[in-house]
Input
Amino acid sequence: MMGDRFTFFGFLARRGRERAETINSVVECPHVAVVYEAPGRVAGTLTALADAGASQRRAVVARELTKLFEDVRRGTVADLAAYYADEAPRGEVVIVVEGKPEAVRDETVWRERVAALRTAGVAPRAIVAMLVRDEGAPRNLAYRLAHGRNEHDHGPADGH
Output
């Protein structure tokens, strides 16, 4: 779990909308999330995180940190949920969950969007702006797609 940022969520609400919203916030967090949890709720919290979309993320359940019986268990959220389903840990528990990975954009999706925008008569400059702003496309890729250039083209799009 690399990174220099984390979000501390503290203790989660026991139930209800607030708990569901916080679980979702942990799952959507782009960097490491740190949660305190009561020992009897560790399995339920890990299961909720797995069900909300974090099942394959790396996680750590640490208990009794800085104490004589300190214990740290690593695995995926789903693996740890299964492990703690049978026996709750004892003592103070901290759950650390890897951040949500950045979505890998498929260039095909951007090409389709460019084709639709071109058909609608949108200027290349506006297409570049839309791809960068709305789609998170790298500017050089957006420019190349908006102007109909291949990766190895260096001249104008129409070949002149």
Remarks:
- The chain has six helices and five strands.
- The first helix runs from residue 16 to 28.
